[in-house]
Amino acid sequence: MEYIAPLQNLIDKFSSIRGVGKKTAVRYAFSVLGMSDEAAASFAEAIIAAKRDVCHCKICGNLSDGDICRICSDEKRDHGVICVVEDERTLMAIEKVREYKGVYHVLGGAISPAADMGPDKLRIAELIERVNEGDVGEVIIATNPTVDGEMTAMYIGRLLEKSGVKITRLAYGVPVGADIENADEITLTKALDGRREI
């Protein structure tokens, strides 16, 4: 069904968001239409403010509202342990567990020849630089247990082999092919506790 142009445009915008299907986009659009003018304006401003004010941490690549994210600036964290993740959603999933006390490094994806995503398009060089410059004792590779994630983990492991740093990989209680961000807190806790050296 084709809706009137302004509504159809709003539905199309919601549909363009990854993971939002057509029916969900229609529901979202009608929800917006049901808002008061003030609520709709506030909603639009929240989108604009997020795009304007959210940036990436200069150290780890995490989402931040300043040059350095709250995790990297936290002196209570163990800066000698770096957990390498594909994206911010995985970082947030691990943070929910409240067991991990180290810091992170966000790659910005995984090596994927099919998607034309080579190592040069990820923040791997920055990771190597952090390890070489800092007092790092362990790097935990927490890429997703997918073909691309495993390829990325092996690539990083090979690059860090001669660094003298302990390199570990999460022990997974999630099925191969699943994303870490979808794992429950108990599974993530066990994965962190059971990480293995690679």
Please give the order of strands in the largest beta sheet.
Answer: 4-3-5-6-7
Tell me the CATH topology of the largest domain: Dna Topoisomerase Vi A Subunit, Chain: A, domain 2
How far apart lie the N and C ends?
A: 54 Å
What is the C-alpha radius of gyration, as a whole number of Å?
20 Å
Quaternary state of the chains: single chain
Low-confidence stretches: none
Structural class: alpha/beta
Instruction: Output mean pLDDT.
Output: 90
Q: List how many beta strands DSSP finds.
A: 7
Helix content: 40-55%
CATH hierarchy class name of the largest domain: Alpha Beta
Fraction in beta strands = 5-15%
Provide the succession of SSEs: HHHEEEHEHEHEHE
Main beta sheet strand tally, sense and closure: 5 strands, mixed
Number of domains: 2
Total helical segments: 7
Shape estimate: elongated
CATH architecture of the largest domain: 3-Layer(aba) Sandwich
Secondary structure: elements and pairs:
Blueprint: H1 5-15, H2 22-33, H3 37-53, E1 55-56, E2 63-64, E3 78-85, H4 88-97, E4 102-106, H5 124-133, E5 138-141, H6 147-160, E6 166-169, H7 185-193, E7 196-197
Parallel strand pairs: 3-4, 3-5, 5-6
Antiparallel strand pairs: 1-2, 6-7
Helix pairs in contact: 1-2, 4-7
Question: How would you characterize the overall build of this protein?
Answer:
- The protein has 198 residues and is of the alpha/beta class.
- The protein has two domains: 5-53, Helicase, Ruva Protein, domain 3 (Orthogonal Bundle); 74-197, Dna Topoisomerase Vi A Subunit, Chain: A, domain 2 (3-Layer(aba) Sandwich).
- It is 42% helix and 14% strand.
- The protein is built from seven helices and seven strands, in the order αααβββαβαβαβαβ.
- Strands 4-3-5-6-7 form a five-stranded mixed β-sheet.
- Strand 1 and strand 2 (63-64) form a beta hairpin.
- Helix 1 (5-15) crosses helix 2 (22-33) and helix 4 (88-97) packs across helix 7.
- The longest helix has 17 residues, at 37-53.
